[in-house]
Amino acid sequence: KTANYGNYSNWGRIMAALGYSVIKFNEENVSIHFGNIEVVNKGTGTGKDAEANNYLKNNTEVSILRNLNKGSASAKVLTCDLTEEYIRVNAEYRT
């Protein structure tokens, strides 16, 4: 979330998070898209990071697709960003 807020399409962290998951998959089959921009194809970067960063910068709602190319299951997650104000407010909150 913080990388998205900073307009940084850090697909390496997405790949790392996939690796931490319990799902068995072959990294050479993975593709990752930011909107329609493919940043990973068959587990390898496509060199479109700057284009994906611009996509994040210019859109208030973004889509990040991770395809393991394994089966037909899918999931959708809705979330919000972490802005500087959100972090500041929550850092000051004490229980």
TrEMBL record:
MF (Gene Ontology) = L-glutamate N-acetyltransferase activity; L-glutamate N-acetyltransferase activity, acting on acetyl-L-ornithine as donor
Matching Gene3D superfamilies: ArgJ beta chain, C-terminal domain (3.10.20.340)
Under the heading Pfam families, the entry gives:
ArgJ
Q: Report the record's Gene Ontology biological process terms.
A: L-arginine biosynthetic process; ornithine biosynthetic process
Q: Which UniProt keywords apply?
A: Acyltransferase, Autocatalytic cleavage, Transferase
Q: Which residues form a coiled coil?
A: none
Partners and quaternary state? Heterotetramer of two alpha and two beta chains.
State what protein this is by name.
Answer: Glutamate N-acetyltransferase / amino-acid N-acetyltransferase
Transferase found in the keyword field: yes
Q: Does the keyword Acyltransferase apply?
A: yes
> What InterPro entries does UniProt report for this protein, alphabetically?
Arg_biosynth_ArgJ, ArgJ-like_dom_sf, ArgJ_beta_C
What species is given as this protein's source?
Candidatus Hakubella thermalkaliphila
Which protein family is it in?
Belongs to the ArgJ family.
